[in-house]
Amino acid sequence: MNKTAPDNRTVSEITALLNYGTWRFQKNWKPLEIVDAKDCHFTDASGKKYLDFSSQLMRVTLGHKNRAVMKAIEEQARTLPYIAPGFATAVRAELSSLLLEVLPKGLEKFFFATSGTEANEAAFKIARMFTGRTKIIARYRSYHGSTMGSIAATGDPRRWAMEPAGKIPGVIFAPEVHCYKCPLNHHYPECEIACVEYIDHMIRNEGDVAAVIVEPVVGTNGVLIPPKEYMPRLRQICDEHKILLIADEVMSGWGRTGKWFAVDHWDVRPDILTTAKGITTAYMPLGLCATTKQIGDYFDDHYFAHGHTYEAHPLTLAPAVAAIREYRRLNLIERSAEMAPYMGERLLELKAKHPSVGDVRGIGLFWAVDLVKNQKTKEPFNSYADKVNGAPLLVDKIAAEMMKNGVFIQAWVSHFVIAPPLIITEGEIDTGVRAMDAALSIADEALTN
Fold first, then answer.
1. Do 293 and 432 sit in the same domain of this protein?
2. Domain boundary residue, one of 300, 329, 358
3. pTM of the full predicted structure?
4. Read out DSSP for 146-161?
5. Which of 133, 224, 337, 422 lies deepest, with the highest CB count within 10 Å?
């Protein structure tokens, strides 16, 4: 039963009345009260269980209630719950040493924040201080955070509401890499990766560029996987122009793509890597901005103008140590890659069956299903403008139907992101796909209206 306050309002009602619901109109918001979670499921106040097919916001990578991670938090709370970031702690040293083992080689200096947003803010400031230049090149179909700097570098419509204030001078946008629906109307491989060559063109014609930031595999905006030539060529372009490459691995890191980090698929070493989410499997808020030693050495004799109260908070670091050990103990990086064919096979069955499914793409346990009005024209059911204007979205109707059938999935504008905990079983994948199969009848029916 829903718990009630002294005035008989439910937990859900109090939450909606007194809290902001993010990225939404507030009217008619009725958040579901959740009381428990375990492994790949969570439970609402009525006792109903849901398969977490997107691991909340693509972040509960180890699943809910991993005992080793919870124990690490408990032990750290008893040992040293907080100390200012100007001090050294054993857990900070331990995590830093572990990171040298799992991060792409060459990343050897770390700034610990409390979110991916803050990690990206740190990356922008570091890039500008180190290079002495200003401009950041980001891409459309991207999301880098919600603070003023990170939202300015975000390509999707969450940026629109903040403009012009949100458009901090110095951020410019390049085309995304999206072979299913190329923004340049090209076709791979005949295109010779025109989307990355356009970034070279931008740098040559802009000047004052400090860095390029990309999600190596784009997350919320559709799990966009670049061709094999893209990331190596981008690394080459950045080297030629002596600018920094920032890899935003907030969502694609920690085994999500079948490697520790997505850049590992192409053996590309960024100058700065940002991450969060799976670093603690979301049990504590931790973000990481990792840089090369060369960048770190620069600040030996130059003022490092960044920091905040909760930087390197001991309670956030301890679960990261435990999480890394759990990824290794359970062989979850390898398991993510091994489960990919099965997930892909099951999702492709949906494309073959439902005319409303335009594309299925994925890597590791990171997948997207695009909905379209027409498989040939690839016209989506909804647009970014629909999202920000509050128009009803077809994907939300389908997600709601799946929830009725006990499966939670992340929907965004006109696609779904499937990113379950890395511990998911084939049987649980079958459960999620069956729920999507049934709910996609809503989209198929919309084709005839």
1. no
2. 329
3. 0.95
4. SSHHHHHT--SGGGGG
5. 422
Same domain for 102 and 161?
Answer: yes
Q: CB under 8 Å to 345, separation ≥6 — which residues?
A: none
Give the end of a domain, one of 310, 329, 348: 329
What residue type is 173 in one-letter code?
F
Please give the chain's pLDDT, 449 residues, in tens.
Answer: 455 555 789 999 999 999 999 998 999 999 999 999 999 999 999 999 999 999 999 999 999 999 999 999 999 999 999 999 999 999 999 999 999 999 999 999 999 999 999 999 999 999 999 999 999 999 999 999 999 889 999 999 888 887 775 456 689 999 999 999 999 999 999 999 999 999 999 999 998 999 999 999 999 999 999 999 999 999 999 999 999 999 999 999 999 999 999 999 999 999 999 999 999 999 999 999 999 999 999 999 999 999 999 999 999 999 999 999 999 999 999 999 999 999 999 999 999 999 999 999 999 999 999 999 999 999 999 998 998 888 999 999 999 999 999 999 999 999 999 999 999 999 999 999 999 999 999 999 999 76
